[in-house]
Amino acid sequence: MMTNHNAFCQFCTAVRRKGAFALCLALCVLGLGLSASAQKPTIITFDAPGANGYGTAPVGIDLLGTVAGNYYDANYVSHGFLRSPGGKFTTFDAPGAGTVANDNNGTFAAGINQLGTVAGYYNDANLVSHCFLLSPDGKFTTFDAPGADTNPADALGSWLIGISALGATSGSYIDANHMYHSFVRSSAGKFTDFDAPGALNGSTEPDGPLNLEGAIVGWYLDSNSLFHGFVRDPHGTLATFVGPGSCDTGTSTGCYGTGAYNINILGTSVGAYMDNSGNFVAHSFLRSPDGTITTFEAPGAGAGLYQGTVWNQIAGLNDSGAVTASYVDANYVYHGFLRSPGGKFTTFDAPGASMTGTIPVSLNQWGSITGYYYDSNYVVHGFLRTP
Prior knowledge:
The chain contains two helices and 29 strands. Strand 12 and strand 13 form a beta hairpin. By secondary structure, the protein is mainly beta.
């Protein structure tokens, strides 16, 4: 734990902008107290109050260990929740969120930044989606991406997907012509649209949080129905890539190509690709800022059809370079793993997880991991693994 803290503090020297450096330094100072409390890893499970048989699904964890996520009530209306490090729950609904039963109404958190601001979207009673931010003091900001189709008859709109520590956000929207577009919104509220070059019909999708500087990763689909990964830097330059040995026959054959899912303060990104073996086995990678790709496999990952590492397209990556995600074994059971910055693997399963398995989604700078698991009745529950 102390090693991870020291490494993270050293990373602050790479941050050149004054505001970002000050924030990074503050995280290091705060971490001095947190590092000293390291104990043997433990996993606790939880459910949001009011969650029905549809379950509880965390989406992220902040610096202090607050978990954000979503749950469905008995009417199949979604609500957001925050779980404090001490286990106290606060539930929330974005203003304007619909409450129509069994109609995918409600509030959907998508992520939480290191300082506790939640980003997400809500569906109104007409199933039009709108973006929201929830500050640590409980104040909501709601907005729509410029150009988003908010016609109630169309049930479209815009969605937030990720948020940086400094409050920049990214997301997608659908316009009146039913075309997808991606956007970045600065902390001051300025929108910038973007689409990857060669993307089919605007099929560019940001994935995961922005890093401290505002870089973001994701994937897009080309005209041959092949997925590629991309990295968009804070200045808007977009680089595209595929994993080494990535399958290239398109979605019609079962090949889903390459995607990038998270990026840290140094510009290192994590993602996965399906190979050309015929089994479309998933392999994970770390991509450095200069484009060098290093692949890795979780021990125990299967090599059968649609097995492998980071198959679920969710991966947590912190600024020390640790990665958490899931792998699929030879029996199609999902397991969680933590890969240290030095490449050491620790695998784990949430207590009570069924054959469907354990899905980590996020880890903070100190190595706390949150995610969800399925029980034997296929009900989703949250978990928190502390280092």
